[in-house]
Each structure stands twice: as structure tokens, then as C-alpha cells.
Amino acid sequence: MPEISGEELEELRRLTLVEQSVIAGLREGGFSEKALEIFRYRRNFLLPDDPLKDIADVIGKFTGACGDHVDIYLKIDQDIIKDAKFLTDGCPGAVTSAAALTEMIKGESTTRASELKVRHVVGFLKEGAKGLPKNMHDCCGIAIGALRDAIAKYK
After folding, report:
1. Given this model, what pLDDT does residue 1 score?
2. In terms of C-beta density within 10 A (0-12 exposed, 13-18 middle, 19 or more buried), how is residue 40 classed?
């Protein structure tokens, strides 16, 4: 294992503190612990140079009125979504919504996945009184728009 310099260690510590501050702000803003975990670990998030996006059967894209953009990458076999990944340049709400949606649709038929609505993603993220703050519900719509675009291209 390569040795970490003092400068590198300090940078990692600083980044960890920034991340903790962001997470604390999102928690105060109404994110549930489930939503925070999904945001923090960015499940199914692709990096721009990730080769997995090249093997997707179909890619859906959608840009919201706010300017946030989500791409959904689907691997489909006999109308069943086998894998789903996403890429976004959006806010924490867009990241969380797209990550949650990709978790929700794995193993589902394209028909069932295309029927998902904002309230389903919001419900998936809800724990007690918290979930995804109301001012970020439109982020779910962006992710769903990308999913519907992908499914329309597939069919």
C-alpha cells in the first residue's frame, strides 16, 4: 500500500470534514437517514469515463427546468431491467433521486418501471417525518423523465 504524505492526509481530513458538513446540512434540511445514505454512497453512480455506460442497452436523458441533467443507463433482458446506472450533474436531490430510482427498478419489467411516479420515489426515501424535502421532489421527476426516455427508446 502506498504511503500517504502529510499533505495528502490533511487534504483527506479536510474533504471528510466538508462531506460531514454537507451531510449535516442535508439532515437539517429534511433528508431521512435512508436518503442520506443513498446520497453519500451514490449507489449506481457512473463516472464520466466509466466503461459500464458503453455496454448499456439503452440510455435515457432528461434535463429539468432547474438545469439539472440525469442520464439513466439500462441493461435489459427480455423486458426485465437487469441493471441500472446513472450520471448526473445535479444537486443532492438529483443524485439521491436518481440513485433511489435505479435501486427501485432493478428486476422490474420495463412496463412496471415506466409506471413509477414522483410519489413512489419520495415514498421509497421516506422514514418517519423525513425523506426527500418537498423543494427537491422535482428532482425525482428529472430521474423519472430520464427513465421514461430510456424505456421509450428501448420499446
Report:
1. 56
2. middle
d(CA 61, CA 42): 18
CATH number belonging to the domain at 6-154, selected among 3.80.10.10, 3.90.1010.10, 3.40.50.1390, 3.40.140.10: 3.90.1010.10
Answer for the pair 75, 82: CB distance below 8 angstroms, yes or no: yes
- Domain residues of the chain, as ranges? 6-154
Selection from 136, 143, 155, 151 nearest residue 74 by Cα: 151
7-54 tens-digit pLDDT? 877 776 776 777 888 888 999 999 999 999 999 888 899 877 777 666
